[in-house]
Design goal:
Chain lengths: ~375, ~230
């Protein structure tokens, strides 16, 4: 999907990255000032690397050696969603969305984008009247409609409160699932990257520190992004369990049931759940007479010891990351393949309601707007 | 009221000529001045400093000197233009343009430079981005700059008298008519001309403010719906 080999020095900061990514959605993680945005700017063509090559889906965007190839920004077909949405404030939402529409090009259609991002009610609104979360969605839609061959998402959750960030994350997931466009998702936290991306690059001070599937990257570094590893959250989508008694709210995780403390709207098809890695306890036997509402059977996939914390990857139907002390790993003799029970309180699970549900994508109703 | 009753044909002619010369001068510098303002705000060219100095000089130089320079240029290029209303209009335009250019430039510099990046990634050409994003967002600066330029053109005196003279009915604008009247103690009251000059200036500023106010109201109406995040 992406082949990079570039060097760029700006104001004393030097970025040097050489890597390849095959995944449909690549996550780039690193603390502030690690060079993430500079890298995106090089790919989008907003700045030129001092030397190197950038190849996206087999198309050479930049090659400083071969006759100085440098495709101009507007011909790169790279959709770029910046942190601050940057909608055109004097236009309506619909005019913003239509701005980048390319005629005679196959790309996402307006009514599909409006559907997936649930922008219908916003279309006539003036862009400068939107709230933060709405503006992010419109910015994503606008980039999608320019028929990009690569979508760059630069920290699209920054500045949103937890609830809105969760919702926006869910919309991004829908977009990346519904439209067949490769994407690079940049973030300073790992939890959202684990949810969206199949491959991760870890940057620090302008250099690549680790690359590969998320589990590999997590196992090989003590600190990923701004948050310490034990603050990682397991973020995943789950459908409500209708067989549970009406007094409790429960979700299905694989074949098991997960009870949560907060009630959900009756019409919820699906919700985004978040559990902190350090809020899960592990036991080798099924505990009895315990106050915690959830005991889920799982299998250890990998154990990564990292000084103060150990990360245990447990498959309970989805893969959870559990952060425990190295002492506990030793005492329980945790290793890949063994069966464990994950214990967690109902109140330790955050439920982020997702509006409308994904039913829209399943039964798409012909939109009233046609491009 | 008594003042307007005493407006003679010569005064009316001066007012008519002032309106014509100042409006023409504003229109002449509107498009190139706006484009130059945008260019100065955006360019990284080394020429920028030189162009900036050349464009801004008429604003700080004594108008008589600007007039003399223009006189030399017109003598060399086309003597027929001298002492016509065209020369008066040219002199006003050159003195008024810096106000337009400076205002447009400040306005464009105030725009988020990242918007230009977004336009590029959406495939917009420079022309399209100028037409659909930069100019509409900088319109307050353009309207404000144009009204300032108009007001300046109405009051232009020093350069006009050098290149266009003070010919009644042809180049005698309000400031020149007032000056002529001051020279002649037996002349009728200059009060009507002073009122006319003030009214034109107030009209120029008022028109600009009204245009800006109208657009602000239009935009705030679109903003009345609450921004609820669902």
């Amino acid at each position: 999907m992406l082949e990079l080999d570039l060097r760029k020095t700006i104001n004393g900061f030097s970025l040097e990255v050489a890597a390849q990514a095959q995944a449909r959605v690549l996550g780039i993680v690193g603390p502030s000032g690690s060079g993430k945005t500079t890298l995106l700017h090089c790919i989008a063509g907003l700045i030129q690397p001092d030397s190197g090559t950038i190849i996206v889906n087999g198309r050479t965007l930049v090659d400083t050696a071969a006759g100085k190839t440098a495709i101009p920004v507007r011909d790169r077909r790279v959709g770029y969603v910046l942190q601050d949405s940057l909608l055109f404030p004097h236009m309506s939402v619909e005019a913003n969305l239509r701005y980048g529409l390319r005629k005679h090009e196959s790309g996402p259609r307006l009514h599909d984008v409006v559907d997936v991002l649930e922008l219908g009610p916003l279309l006539p609104r003036s862009a400068d009247t939107l709230s933060g979360g709405q503006a992010r969605r419109v910015a994503v839609g606008r980039a999608l409609l320019s028929a990009p061959r690569l979508l760059l998402l630069d920290e699209p959750l920054t500045g949103l409160d937890r609830r809105l960030a969760g919702k926006t994350l869910h919309y991004l997931h829908r977009v990346l699932t519904a439209f067949d466009i490769p994407a690079i998702y940049v973030s300073h936290t790992m939890s959202d990257v684990l949810f969206l991306c199949q491959e991760v690059w870890l940057l620090s001070s302008g250099r690549m520190v680790a690359a590969g599937v998320p589990r590999h990257v997590l196992s090989s570094s003590q600190r990923v992004g701004d948050a310490p590893l034990h603050e990682l959250e397991n973020v995943f989508l789950a459908a409500p369990d209708r067989t549970a008694s009406p007094e409790v709210t429960a979700f299905r995780v694989g074949t098991q049931r997960l009870i949560v403390a907060s009630p959900i709207a009756p019409a919820t098809h699906e919700a985004l759940l978040a559990i902190r890695a350090s809020d899960i306890m592990l036991s080798l036997t099924r505990p009895e007479r315990i106050s915690a509402r959830n005991v889920l059977r799982g299998q250890v996939a990998q154990v990564a010891n990292q000084g103060k914390h150990s990360l245990v990857f447990v498959d309970v139907g989805v893969e959870w990351i559990v952060a425990i002390t190295p002492g506990a790993v030793e005492e329980l003799n945790l290793r890949p393949g063994i069966e464990v029970f994950c214990i967690l309180k109902a109140s330790s699970i955050s439920v982020i309601p997702t509006s409308g549900g994904s039913s829209i994508m399943m039964n798409r109703i012909p939109g009233t707007l046609h491009v | 009221m008594m003042s307007f009753a005493s407006l003679g044909s010569a005064e009316l002619e001066a007012i008519r000529l002032s309106v014509k010369v100042s409006l023409a001068a504003t229109l002449v510098c509107l498009v190139p001045g706006t484009l130059l303002g945008v260019w100065l705000a955006r360019t990284r060219s080394r020429l920028r400093l030189i162009v900036d100095v050349v464009v801004m000089t008429p604003l700080v130089m004594p108008p008589v000197v600007t007039g003399l320079l223009l006189l030399m240029v017109l003598r060399a290029l086309n003597r027929d233009l001298l002492f016509t209303w065209w020369a008066a209009m040219l002199a006003s335009a050159i003195l008024a343009a810096p106000l337009l250019i400076r205002t447009v430039r400040t306005s464009v510099e105030g725009l988020d430079p990242r918007l230009a990046r977004v336009e590029g990634t959406l495939g917009a050409s420079r022309m399209r981005s100028l037409r659909t994003i930069t100019l509409p967002l900088a319109w307050k600066g353009i309207v404000g700059g144009a009204t300032l330029a108009w007001a300046k053109a109405v009051g232009e005196f020093g350069a006009t008298i050098v290149v266009a003279g003070n010919i009644p009915g042809r180049t005698r604008t309000i400031p020149l008519a007032i000056w002529t009247a001051i020279q002649n103690p037996t002349a009728p009251s200059i009060f009507p001309l002073i009122v006319a000059a003030i009214m034109l200036s107030v009209l120029a500023t008022g028109l600009g403010e009204w245009l800006i106010h109208r657009e602000n109201v239009r935009r705030s109406r679109a903003r009345t719906r609450p921004a609820q995040d669902d």
